[in-house]
Amino acid sequence: MVIFDCDGVLVDSEVISNTVLARALTAEGLPTTLAQGRREYQGLLLSEVVERAQQTLGRELADGWAERFERDRAEAFRRELKAVAGAPGAVQLVKDAGIPVCVASQGSLQKTQLTLGLTGLRSLFSADALFSGQLVPRGKPHPDLFLHAAATMGATPSRCVVVEDTASGVTAAVAAGMRAIGYAADSDEAALRRSGAEILSRLVGLAEMLAI
Predict the structure, then answer these.
(1) 3-state SS class at 1
(2) For the chain, which domains are there?
(3) 138 — phi, psi (to 5°)?
(4) 193: which residues sit within 8 A by CB, 6+ positions away?
(5) pTM (2 decimals)?
(6) Kind and range of the H or E element at 77?
(7) In the structure, what pLDDT confidence band is assigned to residue 45 with cuts at 50, 70 and 90?
(8) What's the distance, CA 61 to chain centroid?
């Protein structure tokens, strides 16, 4: 089975999401640039983003902050979001080879469904092949999400391949006993390597890496 992360692997959402996040944190009194947002918060559960921001601020975020951020992010996605180059073809080639596919994201199921739908990728995955970090006790970098996805799909972890774009995701895959492929087109290649990933620069090369 091939397990795809969503943000930054299938949908080109990281810059959009972190731009909205930086704006929301700055408005809350925590000046944040896009680069800082990606460095400090990318790959975290939203609850972890809130916790880290509150620790930095030394106080709680305003009531409804998370809900307003999610609303503003969804509006930005509807205006700007696109599929990552090569994503539809890469997923389809894996499926054509008879290999099951699924998506395992830190984000909520609603967010994954929204972004896959906006980018035309939703039809590539069955309804029971979408998994969220909110469904397990611990998100990435812990292995819980990937192990849950494998168990639900009836796959043996050692026969699973994970395609990730963050070091925390690669760490989770390795901890789950899965082969980790680090998609490095817009990520820190060195960090992906240090975490244990084989490097993939373009999704069109995924089939070759999988020897299909």
Answers:
(1) coil
(2) 2-12+82-209 (3.40.50.1000), 14-80 (1.10.150)
(3) -135, 135
(4) 182, 199
(5) 0.90
(6) helix 65-80
(7) confident
(8) 24
